[in-house]
Amino acid sequence: MRREAEVMGEAPIRLVQFTRSFHIGGTEVQVLELLRGLPSNYRLQVSVLQDAGPLVGTLRQLGFTPEEFPLNGSLMRLNTGKQILRLARWFRHNRVELVHVHDFYSTMLVVPAAKIAGTKVIVGRLDLAHWHGPARREVHAQFTRMADHVVANAEAIRRMLVEEEGVPADRVSVIHNGLDLPRFDARARQGLQGPVPDTGGAPVVLHVANMNHPVKRQEDLLMALATLRQEGQPLHAFLVGDGPRRPELERRAAELGVADIAHFLGHRADVPALYSRATMGVLCSSAEGMSNAVMEGMAAGLPMVVTAVGGNTDLITDGERGLVVRPERPAEMVQAFRRLLAEPDKAREMGAAAREFVRRELSLERMVQRHDALYQHVLRPTQ
Fold it and tell me: How far is it, in rounded angstroms, from Cα 96 to Cα 115?
């Protein structure tokens, strides 16, 4: 546990951040930013289901050694109950006042353990539960309703929680993700850390997303590229990300005749520098939470083309900070690309507005301050 000085004579708040692991992902990055930014009136501890992932090194550099509560497979095993009881004892032993849990699997352990221990619990809901089946969605909803408070990172998620899952509106807060703009700019200045294809000066659209789930809809981008090629419009795409769907997507690119302009770059650690090489960004998901990829494209000053799902419309106002299209409509994506290419001055204006929105509304400081205020409210509602 990181020990902090007491502030203004009050005992520090004993707060646990609980997440599944520290593999690379938007949730894990946001947890690290909270750990960096929360003020000194907290005694912070980190717990995980699995002490693994490339970001564990960063976590330890910040002074945290995570406490592990492994599931060891299915939630339906006897081990789950054992870990719930062990976690409840750990909460009591460490006199934990509040725990903020950030993902589905961790929620299944943390909420019942917190109730047993008498610890306040905040559940983070960071997507539209689009990857759950009906039974899992109902269980997640039940555990969410048991929480003392719920944090969504997009207005669409808040609406789902209140209107579909029955969480009282006064127990849901929307706190957008935060982005450290100076650090992002510094990473961009470091330059590329790997090769990029030579596009011969042609415009480039950048897409950053995993290739694990069909919901990311990279195939719609490939179809849009094929249409533009047929029209004689040169546009290359850099597809950043990896996963089991990559071979299927590469085959689809070949079938559409765009394998030479759809460049699969795999996982990259130099995304800010890649954005600086692009003309525009795109996210064509059919469901989405609050996309860090869109935020990073905006931070790079690019006009973003996004689908009208989830948190995308919290970030992009059509015609102001980018363009918004309906999901699974490659023809609309073509029109958006065509417009940005035909109106470069307007595209630059949208990109500048997008960066200013990140600076003003999505700063890391704002995200941390709003979490701090929420933690104080949940623990001391009368103050």
Answer: 12
Q: What is the mean pLDDT of each run of 10 residues along the chain (383 residues)?
A: 47 95 87 94 96 94 96 86 97 98 96 98 90 87 98 94 96 95 95 94 96 95 98 95 97 98 96 96 93 95 97 95 97 98 97 97 94 95 68
Q: Candidates 3.90.230.10, 3.90.1170.40, 3.40.50.2000, 3.90.190.20; correct CATH number of 182-361?
A: 3.40.50.2000
Q: Which amino acid is at 68?
A: E
Helix boundaries (H) for the chain: 26-37, 56-61, 78-93, 104-117, 134-145, 155-159, 181-189, 218-230, 246-255, 271-276, 292-299, 312-315, 330-342, 344-361, 364-379
Q: Which residue type does 102 have?
A: H
Q: How many CB atoms lie within 10 A of CB 286?
A: 17
> What are the b/e assignments for 112-123, b being 16+ CB within 10 Å?
bbbbebebbbbb
* Helix-, strand-, coil-residue percentages of the chain, each rounded to 5: 45, 15, 35
Q: CATH number for the 13-178+363-379 domain, one of 3.40.50.2000, 3.40.50.620, 3.20.20.140, 3.40.50.1220?
A: 3.40.50.2000
CA distance 82 to 85: 5
Q: What is the pTM of this model?
A: 0.85
